[in-house]
Sodium/hydrogen exchanger
Amino acid sequence: MEDMRISPAVPRGSPAKEQQAAGVGILLQIMMLVLSFVLGHVLRRHRFYYLPEASASLLIGLIVGALANISNTETSIRAWFNFHEEFFFLFLLPPIIFQSGFSLQPKPFFSNFGAIVTFAIFGTFVASVVTGILVYLAGVTYLIYKLPFVECLMFGALISATDPVTVLSIFQELGTDVNLYALVFGESVLNDAMAISLYRTMSLVRSNMSSGQNFFMVVVRFLETFVGSMSAGVGVGFTSALLFKYAGLDIDNLQNLECCLFVLFPYFSYMLAEGLGLSGIVSILFTGIVMKHYSFSNLSDKSQKFVSAFFHLISSLAETFVFIYMGFDIAMEQHSWSHIGFIFFSILFIGIARAANVFSCAYLVNLVRPAHRKIPMKHQKALWYSGLRGAMAFALALQSVHDLPEGHGQTIFTATTAIVVLTVLLIGGSTGTMLEALQVVGDDHDTLGESFDTNNGYRAPTYEGESSSGNRFKMKLKELSKSTASFTAFDKNYLTPFFTSQNGDEDEHDELFGDSRGGGYG
Amino acid sequence: MEDMRISPAVPRGSPAKEQQAAGVGILLQIMMLVLSFVLGHVLRRHRFYYLPEASASLLIGLIVGALANISNTETSIRAWFNFHEEFFFLFLLPPIIFQSGFSLQPKPFFSNFGAIVTFAIFGTFVASVVTGILVYLAGVTYLIYKLPFVECLMFGALISATDPVTVLSIFQELGTDVNLYALVFGESVLNDAMAISLYRTMSLVRSNMSSGQNFFMVVVRFLETFVGSMSAGVGVGFTSALLFKYAGLDIDNLQNLECCLFVLFPYFSYMLAEGLGLSGIVSILFTGIVMKHYSFSNLSDKSQKFVSAFFHLISSLAETFVFIYMGFDIAMEQHSWSHIGFIFFSILFIGIARAANVFSCAYLVNLVRPAHRKIPMKHQKALWYSGLRGAMAFALALQSVHDLPEGHGQTIFTATTAIVVLTVLLIGGSTGTMLEALQVVGDDHDTLGESFDTNNGYRAPTYEGESSSGNRFKMKLKELSKSTASFTAFDKNYLTPFFTSQNGDEDEHDELFGDSRGGGYG
């Protein structure tokens, strides 16, 4: 009866009470979200690039989390702030990655496809292994806390996942070279998939303890997963294009139905890939690219406007939320700060590992590229610098706490947390300065205009004329480039007519390539 | 190593495996969602009203659930289909209710406000008590399974929550009388809040076993909750109006920021109310009404189009998903069919209870209404018939399984499940026929045009002229009506100028009242 008098609708420990706690938790999250948006807007308006939106969100999360920690918030409310990897992978990540693909400029992406794949697959592999070996060696020499070799490799894998959000939003704001943008963007999206795959394989190797001989297998498996996921994504994209071409939903009063279906397809692709044991990230990325390229033009005008705004909105919300969520969780979780040496040295090591990744891959790519298309040193430096770690590394590190016993996971988690916070705040805050120092800002756009628009395609002719120093390896790589290039013609003559409606096709197509520049991506 | 060879990325029982199960589960849900949308579209196109979209969704869920049951789907996948009350209350319900408020025609709603509140509060109370007493008496006389009196009242409360989705979509499709629409709509939205409140109070009474003397308290508490929630909702709505009026976000390139903030406000309102221990449903409903009326016109044109489409999209997805989700869960859950008599009689009893609700409340309302505005018998019959039970009753029944011991909750759950399926399929399927038989379809729109538009307000003058048979009770009721009516003038002279930007105000305002008719609601 006492309870009754205070608040009859809210008994203690009942579902109603739990719901109230959920209400408070979510309320706080919404308030931080609003604060982040407003703060980000104000900072951008005043061209203050030292605190990008993502860093601001992370800081807000950290501060509110610290306050909640001090004020002894109830555990039922806290429960709403624990970073759930499942929630991240199933609900926050898909819209972010889809929007990346949907707002992609296909020309620079595909013309750099070979380089991107090199950086993402070979490079991430190199970075993981280098990090793992360095951490292991430092452990053996008692420089830092000693971890078993396989666990070092797991750490190397998860810490090699770079985050696209912060750096790209600054690239976009400042207007940097499109090829550099494509490289940074493509690498960071694809290497997430590589890092997950590597991490999981290492985790398996660890539980089965059958070391050695697997390094080659890992690459093969990754390629299998990659090709499978890409096929699934492209398949779903093409299916959607045909559906919207023939279903006749572009009548005025069916706009809602049209949009509902359009919005469901990307998620379908993600879950299809995950359900098949493939990589949802890769799948939804390619669905995004295909849907923008083909399905999008089959929609009615109103729906086109709506879905663009919709995906932009959803992905901004998800992005901002990820950083807040991460910041809050970092402030709330228990950390084992005893291994401060581990943190310091791993920051050093990932710097070295990223250098090994970027410069070796750039060397390989430059081997096969013609002189005027080589990746310049300043782009390599920018690429090296842009490797900040974000939500993907954090989510995998959180998983490692469950996967690894005896506080090893805890050590890895704390180190990752520190690396994420430091790189997001420091690298995120200094990217603008760095880009200006390397002189890759602004004017380089013209270079892009020259190199692409005159060829009216993915630079196909350039490759044909080039044939010096022909060892077998280089030839193979060049063939791959050529096949990418001839894709343009195939697309123009067969794919586009088949998958899209034919009204005013040429203009629409050009517009598609152009408009994502206007501010679509992010 | 065996595992390795088959699929290295997906070890059994690991997070990756769980994620794969989640992928399959969500994939299935998306497929059902797409199927529902397409089926609903086809049925509507062929004007087949015997299987409305909600019924179709429920059936799809039931069928797929039954198939999954037969085919022995893995438990990890099944876990993704269990109906979680929390998920329903926190994520599916808010968009549905907000869209109800956002697409509301304020004129008929407010002019019938007194009647709606009577039906929702007094009527639901009557219906709950009548159902509870009948079930108890039937139990005492060994007609059906005997439940304790308080549990009978809990059952009465939860089964009195009527569902707006199905009936209203048909009302809308066929174009029925606007006053009837407002009554059915308003009652079903508000009585959800009453039913929750009653259910929780009864649940508390049960655990404290201090019966009697609480009936009056329940009403008082409910009114407190109602007024508090309404104030919170209206407050958040007005805050948003002022923000969008003065923040200057209606510039072209800030559309995304504007939309992000606009989209967060309703959810903020819901969580604020829940966090305060009030009713989120009532709060978000009024936020919807206020935001449509004031904040909406402060947005840029593009954002206006976008947010309308956005809320429509999100609520359609949530609505359809609720029915699929419910159908699937019904097919998967264990039911105690031994109490078939309980089910049969409770269907009979809720029919009687709803009659007691509708006809007694209509009598009360008609006492104070002038002759030409009395609720006609055919509207009363339509109102009685429209009381189908949906997701709210289902969610509360599911909660009762946890709340009540000894299989009592199970009995209530099974009965509720049966009632939901029967009423959704039977009443949902026959609403079209019923509306035509009662002749409340189509032409009655003109009556509305006459009664509202000539007065240019909420019918204020009509009340002033009327003053016969003045007993105290009737006078009080009339005063309430009058205050509602004079609100129009207040709104026009003070609220609208204060909360909205003043450009082309009059037209915009009229358009606001008008356009929700066009197909906005649903």
